[in-house]
Amino acid sequence: MRARRLRTGLEGWGGVGAMALACALAVLAALLLPVVHSHGGDDDGTAGGGQGVAHGSRARAAEECKAPEKQTLAPSGDDGPTVDEIRAREGEKRKLIVGVDQNSYRWGYRDPNSGGDAELEGFDIDLAHRIAKDVLGDEDAVQFKAIPTDQRVPAIQDGRVDMVVRTMTINCDRLKDVAFSAPYFQTGQQVLAPKSSEITGYDGTLAGKEICTAAGSTALSTLEQDRTDGKLPEGVDLRTTVPNQLDCLVRLQLGEVDAVVTDGALAASQAAQDPTVELKGDAFTTEYYGVAMKKDADDLVRRVNQVLEQWRADRAKGWQHSYDRWLSETMDDAAKSLPPTPQYLRES
């Protein structure tokens, strides 16, 4: 077995100590946060406003999925059964319940340098507050639940959350289980490795290397498909999978793996946490992040799409403001993104 190297010189926010603490906090939070069930419309999606037709249209589109980022409903501010259910919650429970990450630097994370009880902050957190403001009239009327990468879809299906805002790629497989908003961010899979590594990107230099991915991630499914199709370099080891994507950075820092494959947007943030690693090569896929919700929550999907339209157009505190605040420092040189232009299903 190849000897493992303990890499030294860990610097910045992403040192092993901070990473271990962050991961421990994620597990603790997931255990302590209460399970709150929310209920959407009827299972057949026919409740209210003719949404059964739209739901059926979307279901057929998912079955014929070729451009998953376009398989969503046109924006609307009309109320419906799912929104009504959320608003009917009483007292302290009258909150939008959102599954998020708390360990993705600049996306959804607790800054250990802020002192005290660090609040969640980041690009995805800004969006969640924006949706809560629209649905409940209060941007702070939101309950965050830390959700591991491989629990994003089950958390929605089980009713533990109303939605997931967690760097979640819209793809055809997931459209069979959940509904997505229009895309709010464009990215692609990239390789992250030590600066001293001979790896140059998603190419032959990965031959014989051990790669870490998150269980249930697009990265893992892409690599497994490429291996099936004979596109993966010879001898690449994919056995190392982790519940949370950040755990891969820890494995890389400890020398337990040779590289990480994940979304370029996340990889850029991880490179900012640890200056001894860097993105290697260009993105080898094109993917879009969306807000995930229950398949029958048509009114909530439309509502979120309306929020996204307004967020993109808001020059003061909109998409660009959040990008400049959280992501421009880490992404402008490596994986810069512009707000995607949405396209919606035609309903007839």
How do the helices and strands follow one another from N- to C-terminus?
HHHEEEEHEHEHEEEEHEHEHEEEHH
Whole-number radius of gyration? Answer: 20 Å
List the total number of helices: 11
Q: For the residues shown, what is the average pLDDT?
A: 84
Largest sheet: 5 strands, mixed
* Fraction in beta strands: 15-25%
Give the distance, in angstroms, between the N- and C-terminal Cα atoms.
60 Å
Strand order of the largest sheet: 11-10-12-9-13
Q: Would you count the extended β strands for me?
A: 15
Structural class: alpha/beta
List unreliable stretches of 5+ residues. 1-54
Which geometry do the CA atoms define? globular
Q: Percentage of helical residues?
A: 25-40%
Concise overview:
With 348 residues, the protein is an alpha/beta fold. It has helices at 16-32, 51-63, 81-87, 123-136, 152-157, 172-175, 218-228, 246-253, 264-273, 298-313, 319-331; strands at residues 96-100, 103-104, 108-110, 120-121, 142-146, 163-164, 179-180, 185-187, 189-194, 210-214, 237-242, 259-263, 277-280, 287-289, 292-293.
How would you explain this protein's 3D organization?
This protein has 348 residues and is α/β, with parallel strands linked by helices. 34% of the residues lie in helices and 16% in strands. It has helices at residues 16-32, 51-63, 81-87, 123-136, 152-157, 172-175, 218-228, 246-253, 264-273, 298-313, 319-331, and strands at 96-100, 103-104, 108-110, 120-121, 142-146, 163-164, 179-180, 185-187, 189-194, 210-214, 237-242, 259-263, 277-280, 287-289, 292-293. The strands form 5 sheets. It has a 5-stranded mixed sheet with strand order 11-10-12-9-13, with helices on both faces. Strands 5-1-6 form a 3-stranded parallel sheet. A 3-stranded antiparallel sheet has the order 2-3-4. A hairpin with a 3-residue loop joins β2 (103-104) and β3 (108-110). α1 runs antiparallel to α8 and α4 (123-136) crosses α10. It is globular, with a radius of gyration of 20 Å. Residues 1-54 have low confidence and may be disordered.
